[in-house]
């Protein structure tokens, strides 16, 4: 059974993060990033000595710092020297649907598969999708405490850039060669050699970093682009066809997207058990307590068949 490195980022609900880590604590290690805007004391009180905390970044949704904290987490995994079989990226509001034995067995049986999905944006002709990369997106990493004013500033700049005749090419460069851009979910599970490759490229590919700093939600573009333009891409999950929604580009998670990600409750349990997914999001203390307990009971049951959709 290969050891798993779970990398997680959180900004609230330390109680649930502690429950998530306890649920997955079986031949696994945990690397945790706490948003610099959050009070990290509750997290450290509950998790000190159980996880490796990495330096905090000021994270804004859609900004480059989301990639920077993933890079920070990957660095900690690689510096550990542990020969992990899998590096799994989760959010602090996830929860496992499969037992730990099933999770380990599935990853061991698919030891060469890179569980990251990608849709080719360079070849996409849908304007609102291509605009994620050809239009310039600024100011998301500003460390402003007023989110209202910051959002107004971001939206105004986005509209202005759409009016101006300034565009980026629908491709970037890796190792000096043209690389098509791929789009997918923040949540993936890579082999250690692939994770190491991603980290090394993030450290060295300055032209690629400049390109994605002004793209829309680079955490859903940058790592996908690196993987699918590498030898590891042949073992990843390429999506062909029309955009299936972000949930359709999330290989291991059950997620319901609307205007916001739906907070799951006990009423959602039948959908979760029938989904074939390994994890679900989002699970929140208070709102989702009955659901989490029901999932715990199922994970401990020997009659709990699970089958992933990939």
Strand content: 15-25%
Overall pLDDT level? 91
Number of strands: 13
Give the CATH topology: Spore Coat Polysaccharide Biosynthesis Protein SpsA, Chain A
How far is it from the N-terminal to the C-terminal residue, by CA? Answer: 20 Å
Number of helices: 11
Reported for the largest beta sheet, the result is: 5 strands, mixed
Radius of gyration: 19 Å
Helix-strand pattern: EHEHEHEEHEHHEEEEHHHEEHEH
Helix share bin: 25-40%
Structural class: alpha/beta
Low-confidence stretches: none
Key terms:
310 residues, alpha/beta, Spore Coat Polysaccharide Biosynthesis Protein SpsA, Chain A, five-stranded mixed beta sheet, three-stranded mixed beta sheet
Please, could you describe this protein's structure?
With 310 residues, the chain is an alpha/beta fold. It has a single domain (4-117, 184-300), classed as Alpha-Beta Complex (Spore Coat Polysaccharide Biosynthesis Protein SpsA, Chain A), CATH 3.90.550. Helices cover 37% and strands 16% of the residues. The chain has helices at residues 14-24, 41-47, 65-80, 100-109, 127-134, 147-163, 192-204, 206-213, 222-228, 269-274, 289-300; strands at 4-10, 28-34, 52-53, 86-91, 94-96, 117-120, 171-174, 177-180, 182-183, 189-190, 237-239, 253-255, 279-281. The strands form 4 sheets. Strands 3-2-1-4-10 form a 5-stranded mixed β-sheet, sandwiched between helices. A 3-stranded mixed β-sheet has the order 5-13-12. The protein has a 3-stranded mixed β-sheet with strand order 9-6-11. Strand 7 (171-174) and strand 8 (177-180) form a beta hairpin. Helix 1 packs parallel to helix 2 and helix 3 (65-80) packs across helix 7. It is globular. The mean pLDDT is 91.
